[in-house]
Amino acid sequence: MTQLPDPSLSRLFDPQGIAIVGASATPGKIGAMPITLLLQHGYSGRIIPVNPRADIIAGLPALPGLDALDDAVDLAILAVPAAHAAQALERARPGQVGAAVVFTSGFSETGSDGAAQQERLCTIARERGIRLLGPNCLGFMNVRRNVYATFSPAPANGVVAPGGIGMVSQSGAFGAYAYSMARERGLGLSHWISTGNEADIDVADCIEWLARDTDTRVIMAYMEGCRDGAKLRRALAAARNADKPVVVTKIGRTQAGAQAAASHTAALAGDDAVYDALFRQYGALRARTIEEFFNLGYALDTWKRPPQGRRLGIFTISGGVGALMADEAADTGLALPEPAADAQARLLQRVPFASGRNPVDVTGQAVSEPGLLLATADDMLADGRYDALAVFLAAAGSSEALWPTFETFARQMQARHPGVPLAISALFPPARRRELERLGCLVFPDPSAAIRTIGAVAGLGSGPAPGVVETSPATADAGALPLLDAYNEVQAMELLRQAGLPASPCVLAGDADAAVRAAASLGAACVLKVVSPDITHKSDVGGVKLNVQGDDALRSAYADILASVRQHRPDARIDGVLVAPMAPKGVECIAGVHCDPVFGPVVMFGLGGVFVEVLKDVSFRLAPFGRDDALAMIREIKGYALLQGARGAPPCDIGALAEALAALSRFAHARRADFSSVEINPLLALPEGQGVVALDAVVIRADA
Amino acid sequence: MTQLPDPSLSRLFDPQGIAIVGASATPGKIGAMPITLLLQHGYSGRIIPVNPRADIIAGLPALPGLDALDDAVDLAILAVPAAHAAQALERARPGQVGAAVVFTSGFSETGSDGAAQQERLCTIARERGIRLLGPNCLGFMNVRRNVYATFSPAPANGVVAPGGIGMVSQSGAFGAYAYSMARERGLGLSHWISTGNEADIDVADCIEWLARDTDTRVIMAYMEGCRDGAKLRRALAAARNADKPVVVTKIGRTQAGAQAAASHTAALAGDDAVYDALFRQYGALRARTIEEFFNLGYALDTWKRPPQGRRLGIFTISGGVGALMADEAADTGLALPEPAADAQARLLQRVPFASGRNPVDVTGQAVSEPGLLLATADDMLADGRYDALAVFLAAAGSSEALWPTFETFARQMQARHPGVPLAISALFPPARRRELERLGCLVFPDPSAAIRTIGAVAGLGSGPAPGVVETSPATADAGALPLLDAYNEVQAMELLRQAGLPASPCVLAGDADAAVRAAASLGAACVLKVVSPDITHKSDVGGVKLNVQGDDALRSAYADILASVRQHRPDARIDGVLVAPMAPKGVECIAGVHCDPVFGPVVMFGLGGVFVEVLKDVSFRLAPFGRDDALAMIREIKGYALLQGARGAPPCDIGALAEALAALSRFAHARRADFSSVEINPLLALPEGQGVVALDAVVIRADA
């Protein structure tokens, strides 16, 4: 189902007429730059300078104010100081101006006075039905329509070609740098947008609009924070559903970076691990560096379709560099299957000292024998065993004499193997590189960067977007456990059971007789634990007895617990004694939910003991999610091998573990208004086929 | 103490005359290329074409064979097929030819026939006192002296400038690519050497020679394997002692890469983790990718002195990118101290909405106010709190109008703060970039690459090289435990004690009375364990009793153990029962030694349990080493936090742990001829001040 782009943003980003408030004739002034660029690049719409102190600006008749304009205008650029911006907009009639771009700074980024001024600007805009980009932003460009609603100096140093990449940046400086980088790297843009203070339109709005824009095939976004998590999820889902890959750089991965981000941006940064989970969940590729940002954008734009799987063929004219590329492939999780036996045999027939395995090494012979490249690739790809091909040509790429060989190779590869994306690593002169790129072939000077990029984009977009999160208020289900002020372990376990999670049976016994009855119903050796809202470390006060069996033993264990607890903590309230069967053998895991202020309930998974406490080896997903996301978050932890059966232990029931996490996520989402956190510790993963069981849980109410 | 370079290699790499055997006049032939290049670039020595079928080649009189030459000649280039190479060299008189470079392939890389041919070539060379580079190599270049003893097409596409980087590559294809890359990136080379099959001269020889060569300041090496570990250690030590940084790329980091490497090179690859340890130990920087290889070489060459510590100042005109850089700094372990309070105050006075912390954000204001960059940097650096400065200029770098500002900034920085290396991130036009580099300033388009590179080179060369390993045969010390066929636990612990390692006291008791006496001497609750060469899993056969106290209990435990073991394993030989005190509380570690075929004894360290078995979280160092290397290997493991006192436990005695590892390394080295492996498991790390204690050990004889 294709949705149309938001018409109010379409009016902004593809305006038929533009009024420039604060228009100036002085070169370099922010009120002069958009007019200069619009004229220079042949913008076809109407350009209306607005300035009360001039009649003509850049040869165009100027108006004193927006109210002097008879018609409606799609876009007003506000290039006036903060103090005058609201005033200028106020003069527009309701419905007259579609959208405004506010360049100037001095708003919320400067403190509370500026924030008040920004609020006033927003109110005026809202009253008049005007969408707002900025303030404190560099504006935007619609590259195909020659709309230069910006005062960034970047296009003055050379413009980028029109193309399929829609680029949006919260930061103007990053955006301007990215624009220059796109020009240097020969990438084509559909739109370039800087959102600044995001008083109205934010990065998520732009992503969603670009996802529905027909000129855009790939979205590259830079963000510092997000105030509306549900909107960002909707935007990423829209991009995924439209099959448009999103590459995103989000600052604040580390504590140092988050601190720097917090001191820079007024927007709530939120927990970075949650952003990471969000991007994984919606198939957005997170780039850690500007270079990676561009490598990914470049690959997704140049290859019309990313590799459909993770099976990579490598062929080189240097065995050593082949090994370097194999190292990188292993790091990035790409498989390197061997070519078919007959393909290997044919290669060794042609080049006796070649290596027929993968990486295939055709040796320097390829330089003297032009047909060898294509023949080898044809052989490797004959039976569909590779999803992508990476070729290293060493210094030969710099040789003009060999250019026809390489050009033929790239052209024929495209014709014969269109389904296998090709990346060549060599030092081609820039013009030659562009020719290869036009043939749909990636070119990287660094072969490892080629492999890393393939690893990042391989298999992208193969899954559907997670369901869009409904925004209806969450309430307690009918018949569910009533909302209590505090939940003891037994009640917490009952909640989990209602949520569809396998929780260990347990009974709260109020006296020794009840404990004996409980043990009889459980029919096994039992563990007894004191239940008290005042006691956290039960063992320290003698509140736990393990492996109790037989009525007498149960009675005496019950009595011992109460006596010991009363001695150690005479004031503690005691709810009773929990009776549960002794735990079977399994791998101890931890599952939890906490409520992110931006994105709502987030599920955490990790292994017990040192894994969570020392190694911080945990993974996250935003609730709700299904089995596939749960499996991905289980596989993501470093200690995953332990669940697969390390140290002679049987493999765990990973499917059941995934179902449990998905159930927890549904519960956390459905009752997000009721509960602020859940911790299941331990969640015991039993051997394959035996499921999982929650042994203990802590549940905290939302208003606690 | 400066050592002179090996004169035989000096004669090779700086020849006064060169004979080209197989000289040709046909352009593109491997016998023609060196002559063309030598003439074209004005080599000042004598050039002697050797070819029995021509009188004049390239205008130079040709000789029929080396024997027709009256004088001695420093270098002979052999550009003839493998079958003729030995024959050609045979015609040289002993002492007549200093060295030979053998271009042609068809030697050991092709199998056993080729290997025999290579062996014959070596014998002939040895008999005549000729050093050999290759065969199957691209030769070498001495860039300053215009010696082009190569048939690589790389210099034909443009030569690199002379400079301070000595580059050596085992692979010709990698070497040619690296040469082209150096040209593209504007790096200057002293020498470029490809070693090929390494029949005589290998990468280590070249590193050692470059370490002593006055033209070379930085060494960049590519290697696939190494056959002489001691030589490589000597070479790296020579470079370190000469204060010349070594950047090295070694293929085969991963299993996939190692497999590819093994199928490519005949040289023994060895265990990659051991190479990693070697490079760390000798302060060589290992680059994972060609790009990193060049970033590191570029930084070490451009900055005459790397940052002396890890305190980085970041200043930018974009807060967001500052945060991105802070993220990278955190990843690479750089500290970001804040500027002094008065420096922050002055900045905020100049630019009210700047951020005075580190990253310092001067905002776009820097573009309109030329003095701001320098004033900010002066303030930040006034009190010596930074070891390096990274600056991000966003898109402004592309602006020709702002060039004078940036040029002045770089020049003044060099003059005022010569001890603080500067890296600028911006998109300068190539010529402008070169100008900044000439001022000693690094330029990176990607700010993260700038930070990563600073992180890799910061503090480099601050320690002395580890002592050079003596090559005298290792023998058992006088008075040491005699060499036995097999060591039981008690003997193994005695060996450790002799090696200076704190081993838990333990006694081998032959009967119950002896066990009682032993327990009395130990004076604590004891553990009893059966000692038998035939029993590995003692607990499974009832061979272990814990926490035994009192004579009666000891006697009955002794009897129980023997009875149970005899029942389960009637054929097992029983040496007796080990009596040891119960272990105190501590963190269980594992220390081991294994013998690497190339590098000799290697010490391994890790934490017990899942850390080694599931996470493979271990570190290595080559024996012998001192306390500092031991501390580094302890800090290197991911579970290090556990030793620092995670989960409420007291911090461990890390100093004692380091001393124990160093002692183990001295033992392993001194007695490397006697023992092939040692495993101490567990090595218990006790709380700070209480030392460590080895609880159990297995020692295997070298010939076992």
Chain pair forming the biggest interface:
A-B, 86 and 85 residues
Instruction: Report the CATH C-level class of the largest domain in chain A.
Output: Alpha Beta
Return the CATH topology of the largest domain in chain A. Answer: Rossmann fold
Tell me what portion of residues of chain A adopts beta-strand conformation: 15-25%
Radius of gyration of chain A equals: 31 Å
What average pLDDT do the residues of chain A reach?
91
The chain-level structural class of chain A is alpha/beta
The number of distinct structural domains of chain A comes to: 5
Q: What's the topology here?
A:
The structure is a homodimer of 704-residue chains.
Chain A: H1 7-13, E1 17-21, H2 33-40, E2 46-50, E3 56-57, E4 60-61, E5 73-78, H3 82-90, E6 97-102, H4 112-127, E7 131-133, E8 139-142, E9 147-150, E10 162-169, H5 172-185, E11 189-194, H6 203-212, E12 218-223, H7 229-241, E13 246-250, H8 255-264, H9 272-281, E14 285-286, H10 290-302, E15 312-316, H11 319-331, H12 341-350, E16 360-361, H13 365-368, H14 372-381, E17 388-392, H15 403-416, E18 422-425, H16 430-438, E19 442-444, H17 447-457, H18 489-498, E20 507-509, H19 512-522, E21 526-531, E22 544-548, H20 551-568, E23 576-581, E24 587-596, E25 600-607, H21 610-613, E26 618-622, H22 627-636, H23 640-643, H24 654-670, E27 675-685, E28 692-694, E29 697-701
Parallel strand pairs in A: 1-2, 1-5, 5-6, 6-7, 10-11, 10-12, 12-13, 13-14, 15-16, 15-17, 17-18, 18-19
Antiparallel strand pairs in A: 3-4, 8-9, 8-11, 20-23, 21-22, 21-23, 24-25, 24-27, 25-26, 27-28, 27-29
Helix pairs in contact in A: 3-4, 6-7, 10-17, 11-17, 12-14, 14-15, 19-20, 22-24
Domain CoA-binding (chains A, B): 12-107
EC number (chains A, B): 6.2.1.34
Keywords (chains A, B): Ligase
